[in-house]
Write a structure and sequence with these properties.
Blueprint lengths: L3 E9 L3 E9 L15 H23 L5 E5 L10 H21 L6 E7 L5 E7 L5 H6 L6 E5 L8 H7 L10 E3 L12 E2 L4 H10 L3 H7 L3 H4 L3 E11 L4 E10 L5
Antiparallel strand pairs: 1-2, 1-8, 2-10, 3-5, 3-6, 4-5, 4-7, 9-10
Helix pairs in contact: 5-6
Amino acid sequence: MRTFYREQKYVCGKNYIDIQIFPVYPTAGKMRKVKRKPSSETQARLNEENAKKKLSRLVHTNFTKKDIALTLTYDEDKLPADADFAKKDIQNFMRRLKRLYKKIKINIKYIWVLEESAAGRIHFHVFASGGADRTEIENLWQKGYANSKSLRFTKDGVEGLVIYSLKSKPLTYRRWSCSKNLEKPYMPRPSDYKITRAKAKKLYTSSFDFKEFEKIYPDFSKTFKEYSISQVNALYNEVNHEFYFNIKLYKTKFLL
């Protein structure tokens, strides 16, 4: 069987959609295929990108402009010895935060991310449900400076903030966690064979021009008539000579 292209959509809440287009290599009967594993460095980069995409989709599925972003930093005399100690600090903070939200009868949703600078200094970024007094929230940290602000969405959502919160590298351990009540992005059944390799090549050459991209993307005006493109990230892999796309859409009326 020949390689084909798959389109997978991720519907992130009411206002954002992510689309992945990538080649799929089917297994042909009992024929053996020589599998080439990516290098550890390549795999680390893939893990980093996948973590960013997963976190971004969760944020855009679960949070709105009514919710908040919180940054938590340490005073010099309260710096944790390492990431394990820091995780205990954020876990204790989240327990206090849950108690605060329980008092005001809000079932809190949250995501926290541990960030470590090149110098080894640790701080946290938190996405959380709104509804509680922000001064009360900040006072719960007790380890240093806390600053909260309302989430501000653009055509890219809050992706810039998500990527900023994950800028520490390498991603050597799980350094973010979330509440169990988060909704996952809706994933419709993937669409196979709709985009041929020739079509993928044409999409690649037009990826810099959204209007041209919309013209050659199958059924774009019909399927995504309420949406506009905010980003098209296109990649040509020189090893397997295939094309990869990440298309980000936002609901046009959302920002009017």
